[in-house]
């Protein structure tokens, strides 16, 4: 049993949207296939992965460093002998050979993307959904019903508050009961009007979260906190720079409501610093670490261990990224839910065909692996890379 190839192709996921920091006009993702020599149902098992939006495709790093380290490793050294499978932690260690600590940068995206494909293959080799495999290995009860919220509310040319309201109405019509919009990309009074427009639209049917994408300095973050606390928001996300833990800590004095951050932290060490120094409150705040950007599930398990040490429940995690991998982790390991982008980043984001959002939840079907085979537009592009 061995990994015989690791393939990567960088694909566009461009759209005309903009948050407070970047536009997505040239956004890309790396699509990866990990090809094994294991045969199931008459065909070789192939695991697939991709990185989530916000960071660009990582073809250079994957091809120059990580692919070769996996393919050159002694296949025996990557095996999970106890289970007659591939061991994701050993593949991870092979990828990270000769990598110094720190400087996580985009290396964590490259490794996270390959790691997703490895877990997909491992669960397919066991012939079960990844969420069931994870629950079994961690002695937990799986819960395939997962909370999801609709992320959108971007800025884009010509978008007025009527269009913003219509967008949010569309999410409610599709079964969501928490929606998210961007702030910080317009003057504060204009953002206030945008928020009031959305709150008027959603009424008591849903809650609203807002996301500043790390745009604010301390003064602006506080000014927004004072404005936002007039409203019963679901959360105030990523006010300041992701590594500015002192800003995050100071903000809790000005914002008693829930806050969320972590999508731009890429390792368990960064996550630990956030919990040590960021003043995050385990009774109300949310952690958004996204395994596809942060060294994958092998590393995310270390991050969950850090949470445990600091007295945080995994149910305070609602990862960034809107991909099925985090849905699997949520269903298998008891996270609080997952992000979803109903209208963006297709075909990568979203759910298997036929999965409907009801009262803000989806139920994951019993598909082997991560379940990409259940999403016809996605598996089509995946099979073009490796059938
Ligand atoms: O706009 C982005 O970069 C995505 C983002 O922050 C989110 O989904 O929370
Ligand atoms: Mg965000």
Explain this structure to me?
This protein is of the alpha/beta class and 387 residues long. The chain folds into two domains: 3-127, Enolase-like, N-terminal domain (Enolase-like, domain 1), CATH 3.30.390; 137-385, Enolase-like C-terminal domain (TIM Barrel). 36% of the residues lie in helices and 17% in strands. The chain contains twelve helices and 13 strands. The chain has helices at residues 59-72, 88-95, 107-126, 130-137, 161-173, 188-202, 218-228, 245-251, 268-277, 296-309, 324-333, 376-385, and strands at 3-12, 28-40, 43-50, 79-80, 85-86, 145-151, 178-182, 207-211, 235-237, 259-261, 286-287, 338-340, 361-363. Strand 7, helix 6 and strand 8 form a beta-alpha-beta unit. Helix 2 packs antiparallel against helix 3, helix 4 (130-137) runs parallel beside helix 11 (324-333) and helix 9 packs parallel to helix 10. The model has no long low-confidence stretch (mean pLDDT 97). Magnesium ion binds next to loops. Residues 19, 54, 151, 211, 213, 263, 320, 339 line the site of oxaloacetate ion. This is Mandelate racemase. The record marks 290 as: Increases basicity of active site His. The active site is at residues 182, 320. It comes from Teichococcus coralli.
